[in-house]
Write a structure and sequence with these properties.
Elements: H1 2-19, H2 25-44, H3 48-70
Helix pairs in contact: 1-2, 2-3
């Protein structure tokens, strides 16, 4: 039950931060953290494909945050 609650909270946080990404680079970083939390949930729950995909999204979001924080155009 605790793992399910963690997953719901992690995914809700991730999706909320995704919705606010255009408001600033802090939200992009928060989205990356949400992706990492979701990835941890995927691995902990035994759904490793979900964990792998969320880990990839973490890297993508961190790259976007880094580029945005440097002032580079982000596609």
């Amino acid at each position: 039950m605790a793992l399910t609650l963690y997953g719901v909270l992690a995914l809700t946080f991730m999706m909320s931060m995704y919705a606010f990404e255009r408001r600033g680079s802090g939200f992009v970083l928060a989205f990356a953290i949400g992706c990492a939390l979701s990835s941890a949930y995927g691995f902990a729950s035994g759904t490793w494909p979900f964990g792998v995909v969320e880990a990839i999204w973490t890297v993508i979001a961190l790259r976007r945050w880094w580029l945005q924080a440097k002032g580079a155009p982000v596609a």
